[in-house]
Specification:
Distance between the termini: 21 Å
Number of helices: 6
Structural class: alpha+beta
CATH architecture of the largest domain: Roll
CATH class of the largest domain: Alpha Beta
Oligomer: single chain
Number of strands: 10
CATH topology of the largest domain: Hypothetical upf0131 protein ytfp
CATH superfamily of the largest domain: Dynein motor C sequence, barrel region
Strand content: 15-25%
Length: about 230
Amino acid sequence: MNGLLGTVRKTLHELDQGLKGALNITDAMEALSNALALNKVPAQWEAVAYFSKKTLVEWFVDLIARVDQLKEWSSEMVAPFSLWISGLFNPMSFITAIMQVTAREQNLPLDNMVLRTDVTNNPDQSDITTHSNSGSYIHGFYLEGAAWELGRPGEQGYLTDQQPKDLHPLLPVVHITAIPSKDRVTRGYYECPVYVTSMRGPTIVFTAWLQMESEDFDDSKWILSGTCLLMSGE
């Protein structure tokens, strides 16, 4: 993040100096100026940034939100009750840390640990007022190709058909933990890939296991619809 912010400051300062006549206008300055005028993220910034398909205005708002979360986190050195994982520069590092901490606490080999993702019935992350005893609460996921039906009190919800005109419904807060691979339940769950953006492909982060309506439900429906989780609803 520091590298990205440094690049933004440096290139904008150079462009400002060039427009004032203090520096000669270079091709890089001209490309930056054109990108700003077209509401596109400049190539110089993209080269050191995270995956994103947002316009420049949306991207900059997202960048400020990411910085604010890091500032709040670092001010007290305590993780939020529910972490906006989409706001991390490298979300997989946080997920790997959960697996490492759990393996160390339970004296288990890291190679045998897998992730468990339980979707809570809390659509709003502000409803989470305590830290999890194990793992972490995370939010910031959007569904593509499906929607989410909240469960009854004490029960987890499940995947359901996508609603018209709601292309990327927000998934409720997720409780992510690490468990031994032998304890993972796969029956009645859909193996859902998680991507940073709808570009998919190289933006994959990890695989979440989302509960289906019943243990006998066929996951081919969600496979054919291309159901996945995105960390950005664009």
